[in-house]
Specification:
The structure holds 2 protein chains of 2 kinds. By secondary structure, chain A is mainly α. Chain A is built from 15 helices and 2 strands. By secondary structure, chain B is mainly alpha-helical. Classes of the chains: A mainly alpha, B mainly alpha.
Chain lengths: 312, 307
Amino acid sequence: MNRTLARSLPVAAIGVAILLPMFMGDYPLQVARNIMLYMALAVTWDMLLRSGQISFGIAGLFGLGSYASILAVVRGGMPGWLSIPFAGLFAGLAAFLIGFLILRLRHTYFSIVTLALGEIFRIIIHNMHDFSGGPEGIVVQQGIIFGGASRNLYWLTLAGLAVALLASYWFEKSKVRFALTAIRNNEISAKSSGVNIFRWLLLAFVVTSAIQGMMGGIFVMSYGFASPETVFSADFTLLPLAMALLGGIHSTVGPILGGLLLGLVSEWLKLQIPYGHLVVYGVMIVVVILFMPQGLLGLARKTMRAAGRNRK
Amino acid sequence: MALKRRNLIISVFALAATAALLLWRPTVLIYGLQAAGLYAAIAIPMGLVLGIVHIVNLAHGEFMMLASYATYFTCKALGMDPLIAIVPTAIVTAIFGWIIFQLTIRRALKAPELNQLILTFGIAIVFSQAINLVFTSQTYKMPLDYVSASMDIGELTFGIWSFVFVAAAILFAGGLNFFLKRTTTGKAALAVGQNPKGAAIVGIDVYRTYGLVFALAIALVGAMGALFLTKSAIFPTVGSPFTMKSFCLVAMAGVGNIPGILSASVLLGLTENFLRAFRGSREWADIVFFVLIIVVIMSRSLKGRKS
């Protein structure tokens, strides 16, 4: 019974996710799009975290992908749909080159450098007035992709999320998982067991960055506008991080759970308090780190285990 | 021997460059030094925490921001000058910092570094967003006349108030040096920083020392918050760039090297103001710091690899 439930639940969730636009108006669909966007970022952040590396540069790669996509359309005349995979490719390539430099760093140093890189991308875009539109941002003259039909935009974002989830599933089910876990647990013993640490880290970094860049492409194509302040906003680092932590790190389900929960709560709070509703995210991060470092998922596992023991 | 020679060459070059700069663009040197004073005075407390408690406090700048807001509203209500408020602010923020330490950071001291980093990141968000919630993103500024005091040397006119930051930085560095080397509590703190287990064996209360050092660092940052208010407008995210800059300077100087923070700040301040002096490169001044941080960290990691 339990196993059939576990099998059918994801299928049902996928069905609901695909059919959702049939029953919903424009506003709920936009909320859903936002949540899926952050969820995808949360999952990719977690994918790199599985190797023990904390990135604070989600916003940087997201913004890089956003600008790659919008500049390809506006300056290069690329069709909108093609610019999305292009954004992913571009961010992935950038991550590949950067990775050679920064993946030798560990701990705090890696985190700080990813944060600094994001800021560097932002300042470069900000200062290249003629090419990138500068601080005022840049608009897609040809209009939004799909003519702005909210259903199609929803499915587009859902497809982006699906890519992220599939990649995460692959990371979980293939030998990538063993490599990353080994690196996280003990780098020296992983190395002596023949794990090529740098190569696996590079793989994880490039894949996650490419997906983050692609989500950036989806984001700007859905709104037809990008400015340094919107696409490099710290929210794109902060919210995914809080979501993954709340749900439970080192898994695919955790970030989904956390994303769903925090996404809905924040959307509600945004309507209630226009300034400073993000304080909830900060409190969430602090509380989770102090009292349940394994997140909701870990808490659920613990209670289930305790219940199982009692039954015996 | 070779090292000494290299150091000599480097210092000769540095002196020559400074002299050339002084003749060519004196304002770069003056404003660069003033900026360096501000950076150093804020970075030194972070260096203290990192050197002794071994925590990267990503809420460092936010503590300063909170102190600035507290000072602003107290001074506004009482019609007081922020300069008088420096000492009371330092005391209040020290208590506040101690409470925050006991409630949160203390519990994470034994946790993996990941947790500590994310914890202080979370605290930073709570602080800045709570201020955003209460006071919105509006900016506040104290109208003070003495801030615009200026001095003329020949043709040159420049503001002198910001030299107060240089004084603060030197005072902090000297004071901490005295505290850590001459007083019993300071020596105990240094011992805890070097080897917590050993310090515990000889009878030092490690956690009490951590709390004390953290509170002291936050007190210094609080004092800087009051001082910062005299010169600048404040808003919820005013502190966060300083967190990054402080970490960069501490990383550049090397953990536990407080005089090194001073020289690193001078380098950062001068380079930024050098770029600001020209029309074409003015906008790129902000990038210096981020490039510098990456270069420093990379070169350190490569050096570590070799040895």
